Amino acid sequence: MSDKLVIADREIRSRFFVGTGKFQNNSAMMSAIEASGAEIVTVALRRLDFEREKGENIIDALDPEKYLILPNTSGAATAEEAVVMAKLAHAAGMPKWVKLEIHPDPRYLLPDPIETLKAAEALVKEGFTVLPYINADPVLAKRLEEVGCATVMPLAAPIGCNQGLQTKEMIKIIIEQSNIPVVVDAGLGAPSHACEAMEMGADCVLVNTALAASSDPAGMAKAFSVAVEAGRQAYLCGLAKRGAQASASSPLTSFLK
């Protein structure tokens, strides 16, 4: 069964994206990334200092031949800030891809829909491949698709909360209406959460905190990887419909006749 994931004309082998924040050290981070099988790895631009010596930044541990390093604009409070961050990252040699994050609220870190749409329009015109992080808002998701974003990345729950699919019904609508890949991002705290998102028809999931906060990041990354594959396979095969009452798996009708 052919099941290719293509983002901006690039075929992506893994449907599991991994973030790089909160790990105790680079060794734990790399162990988790390797165990995950991920191809796309996100890095927060605010955590990088491009003037530091080589080997002192997180991205120095990532082989650009093996991973697509996806810079994100986490920490940007306005569209203007996000656009500047993306341009600086590209000028420093990073790919012209960007995970667009704009969240001025420091408590819940919820994305600003107005500034996100504004920044997406500007970055697409500049030739960036834009993957915007958004609230689970079907209307906004369609607007971002229309301006040329490569994916939409609706949150399952607030960043780092590990609550799982709190926005499930809205994500279902986004998946139904979308003509571009849907990446469920933020709030997935257990492999079962990732599996459920994939069973719904999400194209990918992105996980960070659940791996970094685990006592065994590499083991947890492997567990998530297996869950993502299982969820995708279940979606492709078609889940059995839920019933309101019991239905015998071995009916006696023919035997009695």
UniProtKB/TrEMBL annotation:
Any Gene Ontology biological process: thiamine diphosphate biosynthetic process
A GO molecular-function annotation: thiazole synthase activity
Enzyme class: transferase
Catalytic residues as annotated in Swiss-Prot or TrEMBL: 99
Protein localization: Cytoplasm
Domain Thiazole synthase ThiG: 7-251
Signal sequence extent: none
Residues annotated for 1-deoxy-D-xylulose 5-phosphate binding in this entry: 160, 186-187, 208-209
A Pfam family annotated for this UniProt entry: ThiG
Keyword Transferase: yes
SUPFAM superfamilies xrefs: ThiG-like
Pathway: Cofactor biosynthesis; thiamine diphosphate biosynthesis
Enzymatic reactions: [ThiS sulfur-carrier protein]-C-terminal-Gly-aminoethanethioate + 2-iminoacetate + 1-deoxy-D-xylulose 5-phosphate = [ThiS sulfur-carrier protein]-C-terminal Gly-Gly + 2-[(2R,5Z)-2-carboxy-4-methylthiazol-5(2H)-ylidene]ethyl phosphate + 2 H2O + H(+)
Keywords: Cytoplasm, Schiff base, Thiamine biosynthesis, Transferase
Entries under CDD domains matching the protein: ThiG (cd04728)
Subunit structure: Homotetramer. Forms heterodimers with either ThiH or ThiS.
Function text: Catalyzes the rearrangement of 1-deoxy-D-xylulose 5-phosphate (DXP) to produce the thiazole phosphate moiety of thiamine. Sulfur is provided by the thiocarboxylate moiety of the carrier protein ThiS. In vitro, sulfur can be provided by H(2)S.
Family indicated by similarity: Belongs to the ThiG family.
Identification of the protein by name: Thiazole synthase
Organism: Lentisphaera araneosa HTCC2155
